[in-house]
Amino acid sequence: MERITNISATEDAGQALRTWQARYKLPSNQDCALVWVESYTEPDGSTVKGFKPGFMLGPIMKERRDPLWTLARLSDGAEFYVLPPLFHWRPSGWYLIEKIKGFAMYSILSVAGLQR
Question: For residues 72 and 84, is the Cβ–Cβ distance under 8 A?
Fold first, then answer.
């Protein structure tokens, strides 16, 4: 399994990730993952006001996890799975997780020169 360690989180994103993991104690057959969410719509099919595509934290089943999922580990030890093709992970780059305002969603940005 590939591991990503060249990744950080803003203070609010890191706190939200840790809070979610503490609140939702997952059973042994599940892992925590940042899952891509492309759309969020109203019952009439229109996009929810202010919504931007991003990653949502949630559980994934261990037994059905695709080998492309990669374990990301923040410097504080918080771990979660993510699909690198969704944010074009490169071993030589550095990445930052930010919380999207107004939603329980996150973005992952490539950041030049940042290391924590």
Answer: no
Q: What is the CATH topology of the domain spanning 3-110?
A: Hypothetical Protein Aq_1857; Chain: A; (2.60.300)
pLDDT in tens, 66-89: 888 889 999 888 889 998 677 777
Please name the residue that has the structure tokens 């809070």: 19
The residues spanned by each domain of the chain are: 3-110
Q: Which residues contact 106 (CB under 8 A, 6 or more apart)?
A: 13, 16, 17, 34, 54, 55, 56, 57, 97, 98, 99, 100
Query: Are the CB atoms for 68 and 35 separated by under 8 Å?
Result: no
Q: What is the pLDDT of residue 83?
A: 80
- For residues 53 and 100, what is the distance between their CA atoms, to the nearest angstrom? 9
